[in-house]
Design a protein that fits this description.
Layout lengths: L4 H11 L6 E6 L2 E8 L12 H20 L6 E9 L6 E12 L3 E10 L7 E8 L25
Antiparallel strand pairs: 1-2, 2-4, 3-6, 4-5, 5-6
């Protein structure tokens, strides 16, 4: 099962309504998203906080994973390495992610982050996701076919 751009946006809007992240494109193991970096996202000196960039990179890879192997809602980040390349200006930050490995237990994605429409990336990240194990029958309970049911908060 795969999730389309609109379904991925619904996932974000439902479970992270205050994130301000917009899904621009998604499909075939790729995702492009953006977020406005306002005053609450800036550190002294006016640069975008590193954790904001990390969260955007992490989210982009998660959405790239969902675009090709949707239904793996329980996938969790197991590693995130980021290199900050240049100072991002306040404004829009975009992240373009692509999966570079999708295995039975791990997925690895590469992300480039850009500040507004600058031609050079402001950061590069490699993110690894641990995928939920299949049950005894080899079936992954998160990835069964059929209609997409977005997970809901159990509380």
């Amino acid at each position: 099962m795969t999730l389309a751009r609109d379904q991925l946006q619904e996932l974000l809007d439902t479970h992270f309504p205050d994130s301000g992240i917009v899904v621009d494109e998604a499909g075939d193991g790729t995702a492009r998203i953006h977020q406005s970096a306002g005053p609450g996202h800036l550190r002294p000196g006016g640069t975008v906080l590193g954790p904001v960039q990390m969260a955007l990179a992490d989210t982009a890879v998660y959405l790239a994973l969902m675009s090709t192997a949707g239904g793996l809602f329980r996938a969790v980040t197991s590693s995130l390495h980021i290199s900050f390349l240049r100072r991002p200006a306040p404004g829009s930050i975009s992240a373009s992610a692509r999966l570079i490995k999708l295995g039975s237990r791990l997925a690895v994605g590469d992300v480039l982050l850009y500040s507004d429409d600058a031609p050079e990336p402001v950061a590069q990240a490699t993110v690894t996701y641990s995928l939920p194990p299949a049950d005894a029958t080899g079936d992954n309970p998160d990835a069964r076919g059929g209609p997409v049911h977005l997970p809901t908060d159990s509380s």
